[in-house]
Amino acid sequence: MKNTFVLIMIVLSTVSCDQNLSSLKTFGTMGKELQILKKEQETELFSYEGKGCLTHMWFGGDLNGHEDMSIRVYVDGEEQASIDMELFLGHGIGFKDSYAPWGTELMGNMGRTSGIYNTYKIPFSKKVRITAQLSTNADVSEREPTFWWIIRGTENLPVVFNGIRLPDNAKLKLHKLENYTAEPLEEFTMADIEGAGMIYQVSMEAEGLRDTDHWKDLSFMESCIRAYEGGSTEPMFVSSGLEDYFLGTYYFNTGRYTNRLAGLTHFDTEKREFSAYRFHVDDPIFFQDGLRLTNRCGEKIGDKVFHDPPQTRYTVYTWAYEW
Length: 323
Known about the structure:
CATH class of the largest domain: Mainly Beta
CATH topology of the largest domain: Jelly Rolls
Order of helices and strands: HEEEEEEEEEEEEEEEEEEHEEEEEEEE
Number of strands: 26
Low-confidence stretches: 4-19
CATH superfamily of the largest domain: Protein of unknown function DUF2961
Mean pLDDT: 95
Largest sheet: 7 strands, antiparallel
Distance between the termini: 41 Å
Number of helices: 2
């Protein structure tokens, strides 16, 4: 009887898989060696109607000086893009750092200012539209940049992490905190998200604003990341330090690294700068009743202040699936 039950389950599973496979259809497009990017308006790169999931974007060209161009993803006819990212920051790279090649399964930079890619899973129910636009301060006095791109996705493809299929109404959204100057020991909100969902990725660009040529000028990295769910005043501590959150240690004392979970994409001790990314694909942070994610400029626990943090300027991209 037990063997019969197992066989039935295998057959049902196979039938279910066949039904899902029969509805899958891959779509995509590309652009090759075009001078179409503008400062004053968006350029549409791709538009697709139906239900599906974007799975790949790649951008190339002579983009030196245009690392801050905007890539926008409009889902299901929304007027304001739920994903509006600068090219480099949207791939975890701060301070326009063109170090290459580096790459993981999820994103990378293969050619300094060209060959920037990701495999973010961006679901949509009815329609998706992707645009690009140069920043308002872009220098195009001599020539407009030449641009290449690849965009691909699959109809009816579910988003699955750790064996958990996200709800069909899940949307990937980007929350941004840009050029925020925090005072020493100030706790500030990086993202305040409503409803239920899952944190997907956090990228940060940070710069300590005090220069005394002392290691304590980097002590803004003592901060612990905190998460507050459902309006709670008691946090869940997500890290024991800022560099710890990005899987580094001792103020990133071993320098650059990149892997599937985390990476340090820019580090300049003399300028007190770093940029880093952290994915929560294999280390999920789920929430059911809203989530407020915070950082602190340095750290104080109890009566202990950890060293002497300076004023620090932050830009933070927090990506979350929401439903």
